[in-house]
Amino acid sequence: MIHYHRLGHVPPKHHVTHYVDGKLMMEQCMTRVGFDSTYSILYFKVPPTDEFSVRAMELPGFCPIQPLDRQLLHRRHIKTQDLKVEGDFLTARRTLLMNADVRVGVCKPNRPAQHWFSNGEGDECWFAYSGGGTVESVYGLLPFRQHDYVIVPKGTPYRLHPDGNVGTFLVFESDTYIDVPRQFRNESGQIAMHAPYCHRDFRIPTEMLRYDAARHGAGPFPLVVKHANQLSVHEFKHFPWELVGWDGLVYPVAFNIHDYQPRTATIHLPPTTHITFAGRGFIICSFVPRKVDYYEKDGVKAIPCPYGHASVDCDEILYYVAGNFTSRKGIESESISLHPMGVPHGPHPGTYEKSVGHDRTAELAVMCDTFKPLLLTSVASSIEDKDYHYTWVKRENEAMETSK
Ligand SMILES: [Fe+2]
């Protein structure tokens, strides 16, 4: 997804014998878009097809989920800080918003990873609100730290181990892929010099995964697979995720939001200028501390706080991480706002005027724009601030009363 990489031992050509300790390794081609796009070639000690049992599983709130039957059109504020869950990186996941292209949820594990999981529906992008840790996968061990994005490719068996077994994560589940936006690549696939990051900013698995009885147990080894909005558990007699090597362009990566190089300009740039990753039908953007709009001429100044806008083809969600978000009041860290297409949105009264003359913002937030409407799930509805839509009016009245 980022650049070609090789880890461990691979033979000199594709599809040729590869003996290790006298045993022929099983090659697996992990391909995307049929056989036409990026791929990796993996060499397994035990064939990844040796499952002996398949059974159904359900994790309500993650799979299956319950979208609201009727969703009135208005601005939303989902207080994920109020969500109380128990479980590991899989069972503590809750989906909050969904459409056909992407699902957005949070995960707040408070237990050691007890499952292996593979999302057969699409790539996942984890954002570590708090907590670092390690992703353990067939591609090896990938350490991550607070405020990292971690992209796990579709079909990757993995476990996520937060340090101390606790953490808070925002999780995007694509229906297809999540990648560097096409406009940030040159014709050879290299990340272009005008992109807001470079190849050096992306971290990849550092060492191959080795089976350890103390860590991985004695078996059988179950793998939870998500596909077609269902979970199934596939059991293997022998530890199936130890490889001797792999190479290619498909593997998990980590990227820290603080390595994002924000655009700044004399006059306000549209929010999508902060695009970081793209999937089919949605984009993920990073708002990081930065200098803001600095136009000033003949007493006329730039307004750094975003203008009101009717982005008529997009739903927009923001996940607030840290700092003062300049355009909103009543929003706290871990809040998610949803501003849907169909109605305009903009800064809360007072914030627009107050921003004039500011030269920096300390905000840290993750934005997602989608081209299809997002539906709330019943979990999101249970932690929603139901008055949010009208806070613009209320605050305007408050401001008027104060000015009297
Ligand atoms: Fe907006």
What can you see in these coordinates?
By secondary structure, this protein is mainly beta. It has a domain at 257-386: Jelly Rolls (Sandwich), CATH 2.60.120.10. It is 6% helix and 37% strand. It is built from four helices and 31 strands. The protein has helices spanning 213-216, 351-354, 378-382, 391-403, and strands at residues 5-8, 19-20, 23-24, 26-31, 39-44, 51-57, 76-79, 93-98, 102-107, 116-119, 124-130, 133-137, 140-144, 148-152, 158-162, 168-174, 178-179, 221-227, 230-236, 243-248, 253-256, 275-279, 282-287, 290-291, 296-297, 300-301, 315-322, 335-339, 360-361, 364-370, 375-376. It has a seven-stranded antiparallel beta sheet with strand order 7-28-27-30-23-22-17, with no helix packed on it. The chain has a seven-stranded antiparallel beta sheet with strand order 21-14-11-16-9-8-31. Strands 1-20-5-4 form a four-stranded antiparallel beta sheet, with no helix packed on it. The radius of gyration is 23 Å and the shape is globular. The protein starts with a strand and ends with a helix. The model is unreliable at 399-404 (pLDDT under 50). Bound molecules: fe (ii) ion (FE2). Residues 271, 309, 316, 339, 345 line the site of fe (ii) ion.
The kinds of small molecule bound in this structure are: fe (ii) ion
Number of strands: 31
- Unreliable runs: 399-404
CATH topology call of one domain? Jelly Rolls
Structural class of the secondary elements?
A: mainly beta
CATH class category of one domain? Mainly Beta
> In what order do the strands lie side by side in the largest sheet?
7-28-27-30-23-22-17
What separation lies between the terminal Cα atoms?
Answer: 58 Å
CATH superfamily of one domain: Jelly Rolls
Oligomeric status of the shown chains?
single chain
Beta-strand percentage range: 35-45%
The share of residues in helices is under 10%
Rg, rounded, reads: 23 Å
Largest sheet descriptor? 7 strands, antiparallel
Number of helices: 4
Task: Give the overall shape.
Answer: globular
pLDDT average, as an integer? 94
Which architecture of one domain does the CATH hierarchy give at level 2?
Sandwich
